[in-house]
Design goal:
- The complex is a heterodimer.
- Chain A is built from 11 helices and 10 strands.
- In chain A, helix 6 links the parallel strand 7 and strand 8.
- Chain A has one domain: Rossmann fold (3-Layer(aba) Sandwich).
- In chain A, helix 1 packs across helix 6, helix 3 crosses helix 4 and helix 4 packs across helix 5.
- In chain B, about 55% of the residues are buried.
- Chain B is of the alpha/beta class.
- In chain B, helix 3 links the parallel strand 2 and strand 3.
- The chains are: A alpha/beta, B alpha/beta.
- At the A-B interface, strand 2, helix 2, helix 4 and helix 11 of A face helix 4, helix 5 and strand 10 of B.
- Strand 2 of chain A pairs parallel with strand 10 of chain B.
Amino acid sequence: MSFDYMPYMREEKLPHMWCPGCGIGVVLKSMIRSFDELEWDPNDIAVVSGIGCTSRSPGYLNMNTLHTTHGRALSFATGIKMHRPDKHVVVISGDGDGSAIGGNHLIHAARRNIDITLIVNNNNIYGMTGGQYSPTTPLGTKAATAPYGNLEPPFDLANLVIGAGASFVARGHVANGRQLSMFIKQGFAHKGFSFIEVISNCHTQFGRRNKMADPMNMIKWIGDRATPLKKYEELSREDKAKRFPVGVLYMDEGRPEYTDTYEKLIESLKTGA
Amino acid sequence: MADKKSREQSRGEEVKFWGGNQVIAQAAIAAGCNFFGGYPITPSSEIAHEMSRLLPKVGGHFIQMEDEIGAMGAVIGASLAGAKAMTATSGPGFSLKLENIGFGYMVESPAVIVNVMRGGPSTGLPTHPAQADLMQARWGTHGDHPTIAIAPAFHQETYMETIRAFNLAEQFRMPVILLLDEVLGHLSEGVIPPKPGSFEIINRTMYKGDPEKYLPYDVSKQDVPPFLPYFEGARWHTTGLNHDATGFPSTDPELIEREMRRQYRKVLGNRDVIDKVEYFEADDAEIGIVSFGSTARAAMVAIKEARNKGIKAGMLRPVTVWPYPKDQTYEFGRNCKALVVPEFNLGQMVYEVERAVHFDRPVKRVNKVGGVPIAPSEILAAIEEVA
């Protein structure tokens, strides 16, 4: 029997607003399967987002959902998690929302190691606003604001977040939804800041400008470059540049989680210990 | 005078000698504040210092965020999860916070935002006072929205007005702005904290029905939608986009117009509980002073000196500065032959005063910038000029 997504969705909000073939659908389904496998009660889950195509995701989820300002989702999520550390808080964001305008919140949420899961749907472009280059647009590729090819080198988001102090970092991609679900589930279950980068497709805004207007072409372009971490590490520098590593890139289960530390402080002040 | 009255009332009670910023923190805790999201900025930082010390003791949460914008985001996130939340900042930080303060208006999230004003624009005068963010408090964020802003002038009043700011934020489900300036923030003055239970605490009206049927913006029965925090079984949605009763985006022109006007109405239709003005020697005043915050204290000295010289001067002091008390100003102004508006900026409240008296009275401005407060003698000179 095929998996029934509808109990986790606001069915009346369908059809969704994304282009046919958009990678966000794979991300959303992977999230739902992970919620289901962990048997989390939707009443106990808050899903927070900022602005952009990806940030419209919470609207389709039958949970406590908050669609905030551009780039700021993690800060709202931090307030929710601090006040209700007993609940699950998930943030979903695009690459522009999460790493350009939201870059400061990203590194500091990682540094604090607050128990929030951030999923970044990295489709290398500002989709909703019309295809401008983002911090993850590959060098030399075209965008609405890079008609001669992008002049800026891109972020490696996973490495950025590892450097900032996140205790769980994984990278998956939309050509392998089953594997992505596994990473997301691990991220949800992890106590501390968890980050899942999803290499995704925006064939409409990125693909059209870069000879991949068909979603399957762009998804194939992603799938062909995805390389398991171990195998990736054995590649030459030249080959590495043509591919990206997937897998759980970093995990530390021993690091203190922020709200846990704060609750212990409250407890110690109560008892005077 | 507020401080004299309370001094008489509370003989035998403990007088605290607190800085204004400390007063705000203490009053916030008394009001039930249990979340503070902040970012360091002079001259408001002592509020954060106090809150970081006090909140964990009462089971609340303090967090110093990575920037001013994030601090405001955390405050609204906590508020939607049910917290009584606040932040404190000064001009440059207030400019940054306005993005998410606007979000707070749109999603109707209670929050208290303190702006301890300093000189500006930009970095301006970090350790010197000003009253130049008055219009920013009203019009700073983009789009149409009502504003409630309160500007106390004495520490005892600051204590009570901080509690009232929380009450109004909760009652009307919106951000409420508390405007101080560096003088009040850093001045130490006697305060008698009222006993718990001796003052009113208002909490947001909660939704009592079946959570599965909760509509987050159901205004069919009242202008302020009943609230149910996240995680209480309703699984509701909200957004900074214009939205309908379900919290989901809408571009229906009639609905948007109705909702935007409702938000105005929930403030302007409840001015009986929102408005607050104080009068000083106003009954027989021929020269009317309109002034707020710390400048009003200098005006009180000037008024006494004017009266010693035989000039009948008096003052209307808006405590709630937004919505501006235009009717009260009209009533006060029509009995005066001239008005004097001292304010620690290059002229902001004076526009409201002139409009309130229908441009029908001479209005003398007393303005100053540069970080040194307006002296009573400067106000007295203006009074004598128009007398």
